């Protein structure tokens, strides 16, 4: 058996294999996150063809982690994989939207009530800062940043309630809503309404009024369902 010097480190072949697997999984995760963000934001629109070779070249990796990322996206309903034809960005599944709204109302209705009882002055200041940024982005027509702050507002409420894991669950549930809403804001001019609804929620939290906070959240989420017929008429190839 080869002797190692004091400065050498002997790595067992099995350990090397484990490191390789970890590196591949980490790379697949990074590719997944990038593609997920591009699909939800519509930078990669429904119907767009995705080429494993091109993605692998862009990331400077082999096709294996790309394939793993695409399989994960397929499980989440964001891409459709056709073995003989290729992979395309899936169309927005309208049938998934009403159910997602029901789940959001149930879970966020619960978190908002708890948040109303526990919110501190610092928590309210955090929400104020988010709303201020939303107003700024709405005025500037920056839909992408506006959406990011919208996500931050709802995530903050989950954190204030002490149940941050609920937001992690909701992020997977509401994917089709998010894709449709990327079209809703610029088309239907809903940004200002969203800001107003957030302010009503914020005021109820500041007053520690759980009943009012829940009512405001349910009203807000009821308006989340986009006018799919209107969007379909403008983007007929985006929905199924």
TrEMBL record:
Keyword flag Kinase: no
PROSITE patterns, per database record: HTH_GNTR
Keyword DNA-binding part of the UniProt annotation: yes
Any Pfam family the entry gives: FCD
One MF term in the entry's GO annotations: DNA-binding transcription factor activity
UniProt xrefs under PANTHER family: GNTR FAMILY REGULATORY PROTEIN, TRANSCRIPTIONAL REGULATOR, GNTR FAMILY
HTH gntR-type domain sequence ranges: 25-92
Alphabetically ordered keywords of this record: DNA-binding, Transcription, Transcription regulation
UniProt source species: Rhizobium pisi
Protein name in UniProt: GntR family transcriptional regulator
SMART domains: FCD (SM00895), HTH_GNTR (SM00345)
């Amino acid at each position: 058996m080869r002797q190692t010097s004091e400065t050498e480190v002997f790595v067992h072949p099995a350990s090397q294999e484990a490191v390789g697997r970890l590196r591949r999984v980490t790379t697949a995760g990074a590719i997944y996150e990038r593609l997920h963000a591009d699909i939800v934001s519509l930078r990669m629109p429904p119907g767009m063809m995705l080429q494993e070779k091109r993605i692998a070249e862009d990331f400077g990796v082999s096709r294996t982690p790309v394939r793993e990322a695409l399989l994960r996206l397929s499980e989440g309903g964001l891409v459709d994989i056709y073995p003989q034809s290729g992979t395309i960005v899936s169309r927005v599944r309208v049938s998934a939207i009403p159910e997602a709204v029901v789940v959001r109302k149930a879970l966020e209705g619960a978190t908002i009530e708890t948040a109303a009882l526990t919110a501190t002055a610092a928590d309210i200041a955090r929400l104020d800062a988010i709303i201020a940024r939303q107003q700024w982005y709405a005025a500037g027509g920056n839909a992408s940043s506006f959406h990011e702050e919208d996500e931050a507002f709802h995530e903050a409420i989950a954190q204030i309630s002490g149940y941050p894991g609920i937001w992690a669950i909701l992020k997977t549930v509401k994917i089709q809503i998010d894709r449709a809403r990327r079209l809703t804001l610029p088309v239907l001019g809903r940004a200002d309404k969203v800001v107003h609804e957030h302010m009503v929620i914020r005021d109820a939290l500041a007053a520690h009024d759980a009943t009012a906070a829940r009512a405001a959240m349910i009203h807000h989420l009821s308006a989340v369902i986009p006018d799919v017929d209107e969007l379909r008429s403008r983007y007929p190839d985006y929905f199924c």
